[in-house]
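Lab notebook, bench 4. Still working through the backlog of constructs that have no structural model yet. Next entry is a single chain of 143 residues. Request: give me the C-alpha cells for it.
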Amino acid sequence: MTVVSVSMPESLLERLDEFAEEHGYTGRSEVVREAARNLLGEFEDKRLEDRDLMGVVTVLFNYETTAVEERMMKLRHEHESLVASNVHNHVGDHYCMELFILEGTLQEISTFVGKIRATKDTLTVDYSVIPVDDFERTLAADR
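Model written out:
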C-alpha cells in the first residue's frame, strides 16, 4: 500500500484514534480508508443516476472566526437553479447553521456538496438525497 501524509487538527486526530479503539479498528489508517471509500461511494450509487432528486444539505460553522457565511451565499447564487430554498439559523452564541434544499440531478447535487465540503472552516456538513420519482409513485399509490 502507498503511504499518504494527511494534515488535520490534533482534536480531530484524537477523535479518530478514539473511534478506532472504540470500534475495534486496527488503527487510524483503517478508519481513514473506510471513510474515504464511504465518501467516494456516496454519490456513486447507480440507482440515483438519471433521476430527479431532492437533497438537503446542513452546514454548521463559527460565524465569528470565518468567512464561511459569505462563501455559502456565493455558492447559493452560483447554483441558483439547484437551490430551491435556503435557511440560515443561529445556533448558540457563536455558530450558524445553513440549510439548503436542492432539486436536481445526482451530478449537480454532488458538485454542490463537494464545494460546500471544500469550504475552509466548516465544522460539519451533512446531507441526504431522495428520488422524487419514488415520492411521486408513493403518492399515486396512496390515492
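Notes after review: Strands lie at 53-62, 83-91, 95-104, 122-131. Residues 82 and 103 are 5 Å apart (CA to CA). Flag for follow-up if needed.
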